[in-house]
Amino acid sequence: MREQRRQNQADRNLLTWERLAQSEILPPEDGRVISHFGYNVEVEDISGSRFRCAIRETAGQEPVCGDRVQWSRSGNALQQGVIWSIHERKNALQRPSVGGHVQTVAANIDLLLITLTAEDPNEGLLDRYLVAAEASAMEAIIVVNKTDRLATLEFLEQIFQPYVDMDYRICYVSAQTGQGIAELESLLRHKISIFSGHSGVGKSSIISRWIQNDAEKPTIGASHELSGQGRHTTTVARLYHLPMGGSLIDSPGIREFGLVNISKGVLAHYFRDMARHAKPCRFANCSHEHEPACGVKEAVLAGQVSQKRYDSMLRIFHSLPNT
User: Longest C-alpha distance within the chain, in Å?
Assistant: First the structure.
C-alpha cells in the first residue's frame, strides 16, 4: 500500500513535468529553496515571488531548504517552474536517517540556534549539535526557552558556565513573555539561521513573534496535559524572512540527533575545550579513554575540562561507527 502511494505520487509529479514541458520554459535564473514538500519544491525568486517547482534529473541531488538553485519559470502564469541544478553548498545540517541514509535538513546556514528548555536542558543533545556546528563551519548559539517557568536563572547559569567559558553565546528567552527576544533578534540580523532541537521546545513559538503574516505563521501545538511539554508541529523545514533583516529556517523537531561524516579520530577536535589538549597525545589515533600520555585525560584530571563534557564526548565517541 505504501509503495502504491509512492507510485501514485510519482505519477502525479510526472504529469506535472509533462504539463511544464508542453508550455514555454523561460530562461534559467537563480533562486532559493524555501521549502520542500516531498516531490514539490517551493522556490523564491529575487523579487520574493514563490513558485512550485518540479526537479529535473540534472539537479543531481534533492534540493533542501536554503539551497541556491538554478531554475526556470513556466510561461503558463501558474507560478510553476523547474529546477535544473543546485549551486555548491557552503555547508549543510545533516543527520542519520532510516536505512543508513543521510538526511540533509537545510543548507547554507550562518547560525545554528540550538534550542533547549529551561526546565530540562538536554546537554547531551546540545553537545552533538555543537560538534555538527564546529564540523560544518556554522556559528552555534544556545537558546534556552521557557525561562518564565523558573524563579531564577542561577541554576541554568551554573549548567552553562562551561559553554560560556568556551565562548559560546547563551540566550535565555521566553516566547511567552518576550524575555530575551530582543537580544536574540539582534543576533539574527542579515544572517541565515536555523532553529533546531527536540520537538516541543518552542522553536515555532519564538519564530511566530517575528512573522507578521498570520497565514505564514508556524503552527504552535498546545502543551501536553500531563507532561507540560509542547507538541511537535513543524513537519517540514521552511524558510521565513525576518522584518529586521535576515532569514530563519524552522526545522522539524527531533527525538534524537545523530552525527554523520564525523570519524572517531577527529571527534575531540570538535570539542572546543578539548581540542588543544588532544594535540599533544602520544598516539595519533588516541581515543582519549584508555591510552597513556593522553592530553585530554590529563586536562580532565587537572580540572581544565569538565568531567561532564568528557563523559559526553565518550558517549558520542562510542555511538560513532568504527570507520
Answer: 71
